Amino acid sequence: MRQISSLFFATFLLLAPAWAQKATVPLPKPSGFNVFSVDQEIEVGRQNAAQVARQYPLLPDSSPIVQYVQHLGRQLTQQLPQPTYPFQFHVIAQKEVNAFALPGGPVYVNLGTIQACSNEAQLAGVMAHEISHVYMRHSTNEATKKLVPELGLGAAGVLFGGSVGGQLAQLGGQFVIGSAFLKYSRNAESQADHVGAQIMYDAGYDPYQLALFFAKLDEEGGSRGSQFFSDHPNPGNRSQAIRTEIAQFPPKQFTDSSADFARIHQLAMSERTYSAQEVKSGHSGSGGGGRGGDETSGGGGRRGGRDQDPDEDQDQDEGSDRRGPDRDTSDHGGPARGGSASAPSGNFQNFAHTDYTIRYPDNWQLHGDPQSAVTIAPDNGIAHDAVAYGAIINKFRPQNANSIDQSTQQLVETLQQSNPALKAIGSPQQITVNNVHGLSQDFNGLSPLADQNGQQERERDWLVALPSKDGSVMYVIFIAPDQDFINLRPTFQQMLRTFHLK
């Protein structure tokens, strides 16, 4: 492989035009229901990146092709709101046109994609599309849709609070290329197209080139782009949708290509590539030997995906006669039926989050940190990797909502889509929490606990949602088996009364 002077890499960075350094089109914020915190997302990506390094023929980081892709990637990610994920960029010596991204930042581009691009803007467009999947949290949104119905609403609490335990272990190899979590919906593809076009625009590349690249793959058909469209289904009129999107952007001077791309494209054309079948059968030199020995790691800046909590102004506690001596645990580490979880202490301790403060019983455990989502549960309050007793505190970003009523409706619909067993009781009620006006809604659901006959118990879930200044919804879900909820509600109310947004 011919070597390229390191001088051009320095020039590539130093001569980046001023208009490429500052975003001029506001990017949308990630939305939708997601049980993964940002830290958990990064950990999932780190685990799966190690597996990719073992199974796929990666070019080494010393390759000029990889270094060029890394520089281009940094230029694109600079356009995201900072701090963002710890992005890493890699090149796979595979001939099919494809690219994919893991949760938390690892981005992979096939050599076949670099070979197929006519200019730098097209390659930047493909990479911006994958960066958008990470930024918009599409992979873990897809995983949430699959996990929550299987494990119940309480399982979301375990993931929210950072106590992922066996769940992350089970997910260890499920986000790699070809997995269901990386086969995005058409809505996610459309969103990645639009966000990717905005990133290109802000970085100084003509977004129209992304539309041209997709159109070229469509026209060529055959096996060349089939893998890309298998993982990235066409949302319909893809090229035209991108053209419509960029027509709304202010006029701007763009660059389409560079001498650097011409040199790298020539190098890429001379590189050995492997077919998907060769990679699958292990005939590509992957698995740590030859090209594919470099592993990726997490670290670096992280974007704050946070959680928040609501409060209620209802009656004071009805006394301290709350149920529940400590009880035996089941084989799964959760409370066995026959009693309730640890009775809440009358003494409360303070927790200061980045966005709020709240007080909770000092004999209950808090899972999470000041920048993450939070679960608060008593001893033995988690059964079968799901919250049986406790509270989940998190943030929801609605889409095109003009009021707390519309935002809460979207939140409720999202929760019910993820957990069909969750049934609303009555209509949402207005509630005021320390001068913030929101909505309260009770639900029936299924507890992770079983009764004496082995049947799942009924569960009561109490949702309180409050509007945030940034347009998101801060909410808390209090959870307990139906027969125990009435005794814990005074504690839940007291916790809610201590909640203060910063």
Protein architecture, described:
- The chain has 16 helices and 15 strands.
- It is of the alpha+beta class and 502 residues long.
- The protein has two domains: 37-138 and 185-281, no CATH class; 348-501, 3-Layer(aba) Sandwich (Protein Transport Mog1p, Chain A).
- It has a seven-stranded antiparallel sheet, sandwiched between helices. It has a three-stranded mixed sheet with strand order 1-3-2, with helices on both faces. Strands 4-5-15 form a three-stranded antiparallel sheet.
- β8 and β9 (386-387) form a beta hairpin.
- α9 crosses α12 (238-246) and α10 runs antiparallel to α12 (238-246).
- The longest helix has 18 residues, at 38-55.
- The N and C termini lie far apart (57 Å).
- Residues 1-23, 158-166 and 288-339 have low confidence and may be disordered.
Topology, element by element:
Blueprint: H1 7-14, H2 38-55, H3 64-77, E1 88-92, E2 99-101, E3 106-110, H4 111-116, H5 120-135, H6 138-151, H7 153-161, H8 166-170, H9 186-203, H10 208-220, H11 226-231, H12 238-246, H13 259-270, H14 276-281, E4 348-352, E5 356-361, E6 364-367, E7 374-378, E8 382-383, E9 386-387, E10 390-396, H15 404-418, E11 423-433, E12 436-450, E13 456-467, E14 473-481, H16 482-497, E15 500-501
Parallel strand pairs: 1-3
Antiparallel strand pairs: 2-3, 4-5, 5-15, 6-7, 7-10, 8-9, 10-14, 11-12, 12-13, 13-14
